[in-house]
Amino acid sequence: MIAIKTEELTYTYSAGTPFQKTAIDHVNLEIEQGEFVGVIGHTGSGKSTLIQHFNGLLKPTSGRVLINGTDLWAKETNLREYRFKVGLVFQYPEYQLFEETVYKDIAFGPVNMGLSPAQVDERVREAANFVGLRDYHLQKSPFELSGGQKRRVAIAGVLAMNPDILVLDEPTAGLDPKGRDSILGQIKRYHRERGNTVLLVSHSMEDIARYARKVLVLNRSGVAMYDDVAKVFSRAEEITRMGLSVPQVTRIFMGLREEGFPVSESVYTMDYAREELLSLLGKGAGNHA
Amino acid sequence: MEDIISAERVVFGYPKEDNQLNIVLRGVSLTIPEGQFVAVLGHNGSGKSTLAKHFNAILVPNEGKVTVCGIDTTDENKLYDIRQQVGMVFQNPDNQIVATIVEEDVAFGPENMGVDPAEIRRRVDESLSDVGMTEYRTHAPHQLSGGQKQRIAIAGIIAMRPRCIVLDEPTAMLDPKGRREVLSVIKRLNRENGITVVLITHYMEEAAQAERVVVMNDGELLFDAPPREVFSHVRELKEVGLDVPQATELCWQLRQAGVDLPGGILTEAEAVAAISDALRKKGVGAR
What domains can be seen in chain A, in order of their start residue? Predict the structure, then answer.
């Protein structure tokens, strides 16, 4: 099943004024249900504009957006439903916390969906658990928490709606490596256990390589590539020309190939890189000293 | 060479509701000589931003002493002098830009210092040229990319002619190209203009390009050495929630698995050379 489909999707900011700017231009895209997609593109490539169409925050200037096969804007009264089906976590979501307690903040979505108090309670606890928040955090004010924990609360607030499609816009910007690995690991686990569709917008190619299965590359208001991670990162030169980059291990393997060694073209994670080199060097996996 | 910044056993805490202090710096001593490029690493909450804010007297120590170009930062009469010597650049470029035209924004600092208009003109032009943004001088800042905005913020600082710039995660919100642009500007200002640079970052590949890497952990200095030495402590860095560049990590993992590689690999090129050697020794032929 196709979770997200766009047909000739175009969006123009400030149309009809001297500041008119087309941020996405005739985008055609199909994302399968259950996919984990990394979204990359330089600043101004249209990433944020595109994802804001997926739950109807922006209305296409022309073209259509279909979620699970239905046109989002066919009947505007149904729009609210898509706000729950498609969960959007914005950049620096910790600035959007507002409730007195962590519990109430996470409960805001489920309460608005009209769930019973018992269901809300279950959703809140499940979502908090997914992001690694403990029971004693729930009664605290979100403003007493550290930046990393606040961000977890904000993400939990979206997970609590149990969206079919989860879109995260740079969820790890400004976090240290440990905080980054922990939040992305939790999102990966959520994806694995729920089988829902996840879109991860990131400027970190290393994170995309590690967590996503497919990569959507946006460039100059359009889709430049949509393919498996390995295939995308094997086109390093094009990627770099678009103002992006490939993971450092990938560049090391490109260097080894230039030296003439018979190594694979599409190495993009540390584990893959180590195993490939160890097998070439005659020290197979499991042979750790 | 003269020390630009010197911190002696600095203790600092943020006040809590009950009038107690939430201690963030636990006796940090550090001196930064003029002209150095220092990267500061540390997990969120390790105290690195708090330390940086001591470097231009945004914060002053509860105990210990910080001097900037020889001036004690607790001397309120000298605040202006201190801020003029040490400029700060923050994470979010949108919070640092005040004017609606690029060159007016760059002029803001020197104007406030009462610099002569002809001199302001000269400084604005020079600063924009130093960050490679001359052609955008009449543009509106909000129409620029993140990397370009951050370069404007840096130009605004260097127009005040500081001897030192402290940058607090200046690339955290930027795309890879923006990161490359900002880092190359920082390196050039350090190398060609002799400006002392303190760069706080979560990107290990950026820190690897500094002369010196300071690692903070729970309000104390954990390491203070050249990057090659600091990044050889792979296990300890991971334990405090940090990382090493992928080139270092890959070679370290191969060494752990018994491959004969030199230690202290820092860059892509070094990794390629070292792994190539190991492959050749094993008779894995280049085609």
Answer: 2-232 (3.40.50.300), 247-289 (no CATH)
